[in-house]
């Protein structure tokens, strides 16, 4: 087992990893930018190293600075959390070269799944259902037109190196394809330094459902059931739950088997997630694989009563998976609490928190690095916390979430709490009738009642 782990991240996920390390008697090193000097992850780590100014490129994304911090503290492993460099093949490779264990995927695994076009090809070969579309990257817009004509509109153009909805365009007619191509390639080139595009059939009325998997160095994997991540805005998840109210036992088993095939096809080692789109007929298609811990790993932990960060660290140290798959018997929901104003199109609202009260009680969990007096910096993701409820049924989990949101006090800035309160009251959400397009028709003015 590792003696000391450096956490190459910030905020709530860094604090989350520190907590597990302490329980495993592993020393921790926090890294921080000057904007994060007052963050709780800095306070509770055994050691802390400032790695630069607020700009991510000069701090959390700087491989030389992170490796220097690892060297001066004699850490023997690095946990990248999520985001930043967690799925960066170069960072994983540099760790290998310096005999530092990267608690995440190997460079080969990241490369295999990080490029969406090659990932799709790998999954197709493994027998995992994939969305009809181009076999690889499109060589030209004309090639895209031919494929779109064959599979039928609507189609979607996607940047192979994309994320967060950038470099993505939905196209309904042939006349729209060329302008969409021009804008998507330009956006992808600017955002990712890679303007490669591929094309797929656009799945209408989709659910976004992911399967949590764990694999060991023998190439054996198991799954820990699903999470429904369909409540999202501009491809950014806002609410997640497990189990999905849309799933049947038969579909859960099929998707679990497909996720294991996906993991074992690349001999995946560690904790990861296989993401699928599921249409209204409950046909499912591979979307992507995340070779890291997910923001929403918390709800899986709550229904299986197990620490996934601990599992991640143990697998990185050479432990093996049990081979048993899991099917949930409890229900858990997570609301992402962001420093954003839902009544102003979710405009960021950084600033100083003047008062802070965390909800409590049975079945309530809050993962956060915030406190009264803490300033949410404008330089990073706007997440303040993750509020999780767990109960015997979905109805009870929603009721518990309503109560917890009512107790949650964050003064001094605008937050997404009123949006979540309005969502929990929404009849269609309560019935489980939603897709990834749900928020396009959601009455955001309903949140005014809770401001």
Protein architecture, described:
The chain has 451 residues and is an alpha+beta fold. The model has no long low-confidence stretch (mean pLDDT 95). The longest helix has 19 residues. The protein has 14 helices and 22 strands. It is globular and about 60 Å long. The strands form six sheets. Strands 13-12-9-10-11-14-21-19 form an eight-stranded antiparallel β-sheet, sandwiched between helices. Strands 3-2-1-4-5 form a five-stranded parallel β-sheet. It has three domains: 100 residues, Rossmann fold, CATH 3.40.50; 70 residues, ATP-grasp fold, A domain (Dna Ligase, domain 1); 244 residues, D-amino Acid Aminotransferase, Chain A, domain 1 (2-Layer Sandwich). Helix 4 runs antiparallel to helix 5, helix 7 crosses helix 8 and helix 12 runs antiparallel to helix 13.
Itemize the secondary structure elements and their pairings.
Elements: E1 4-7, H1 11-23, E2 27-33, H2 40-44, E3 47-52, H3 63-73, E4 77-79, H4 89-97, E5 101-102, H5 107-114, H6 116-126, H7 141-151, E6 155-159, E7 168-171, H8 174-192, E8 197-201, E9 207-215, E10 221-233, E11 236-242, H9 249-265, E12 270-278, E13 284-290, H10 297-304, H11 308-316, E14 331-338, E15 340-341, E16 347-348, E17 351-352, E18 355-357, E19 364-368, E20 375-376, E21 383-391, H12 394-407, E22 409-411, H13 417-425, H14 427-431
Parallel strand pairs: 1-2, 1-4, 2-3, 4-5
Antiparallel strand pairs: 6-7, 6-8, 9-10, 9-12, 10-11, 11-14, 12-13, 14-21, 15-16, 17-20, 18-22, 19-21
Helix pairs in contact: 4-5, 7-8, 12-13
């Amino acid at each position: 087992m590792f003696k000391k782990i450096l956490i190459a991240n910030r905020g709530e996920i860094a604090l989350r990893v520190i907590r597990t390390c302490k329980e495993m008697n592993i020393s921790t090193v926090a890294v921080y930018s000057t904007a994060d000097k007052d963050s709780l992850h800095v306070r509770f780590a055994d050691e802390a190293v400032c790695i630069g100014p607020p700009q991510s490129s000069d701090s959390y994304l700087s491989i030389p600075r992170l490796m220097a911090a690892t060297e001066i503290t004699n850490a023997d492993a690095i946990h990248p959390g999520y985001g930043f460099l967690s799925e960066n093949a170069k960072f994983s490779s540099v760790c290998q070269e310096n005999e530092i264990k990267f608690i995440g995927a190997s460079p080969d695994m990241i490369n295999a799944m990080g490029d969406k076009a090659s990932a799709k090809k790998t999954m197709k070969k493994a027998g995992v259902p994939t969305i009809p579309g181009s076999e690889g990257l499109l060589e030209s817009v004309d090639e895209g037109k031919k494929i779109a004509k064959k599979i039928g509109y609507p189609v979607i153009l996607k940047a192979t190196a994309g994320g967060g909805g950038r470099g993505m365009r939905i196209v309904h007619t042939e006349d729209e394809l060329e302008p969409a191509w021009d804008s998507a390639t330009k956006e992808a080139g600017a955002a990712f330094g890679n303007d490669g595009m591929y094309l797929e059939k656009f799945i209408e009325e989709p659910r976004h459902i992911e399967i949590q998997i764990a694999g060991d160095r023998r190439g054996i994997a198991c799954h820990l059931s699903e999470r429904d991540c369909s409540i999202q805005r501009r491809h950014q998840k806002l609410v997640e739950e497990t189990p999905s109210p849309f799933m049947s036992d038969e579909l859960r088993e099929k998707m679990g088997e497909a996720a294991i095939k996906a993991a074992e096809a690349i001999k995946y080692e560690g904790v990861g997630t296989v993401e699928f789109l599921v249409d209204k007929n409950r046909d499912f298609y591979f979307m992507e694989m995340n070779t890291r811990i997910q923001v929403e790993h918390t709800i899986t932990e709550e229904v299986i009563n197990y620490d996934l960060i601990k599992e991640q660290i143990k697998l990185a140290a050479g432990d093996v998976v049990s081979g048993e798959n899991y099917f949930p018997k409890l229900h858990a929901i997570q609301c992402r609490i962001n420093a954003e104003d839902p009544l102003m199109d979710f405009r960021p609202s950084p600033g100083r928190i003047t008062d802070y009260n965390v909800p409590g009680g049975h079945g309530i969990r809050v993962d956060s690095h915030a406190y009264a007096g803490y300033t949410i910096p404008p330089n990073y993701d706007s997440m303040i916390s993750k509020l999780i409820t767990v109960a015997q049924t979905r109805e009870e989990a929603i009721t518990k979430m309503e109560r917890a949101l009512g107790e949650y006090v964050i003064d001094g800035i605008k937050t997404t709490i009123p949006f979540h309160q309005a969502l929990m009251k929404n009849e269609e959400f309560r019935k489980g009738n939603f897709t990834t397009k749900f928020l396009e028709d959601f009455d955001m003015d309903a949140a005014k009642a809770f401001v």
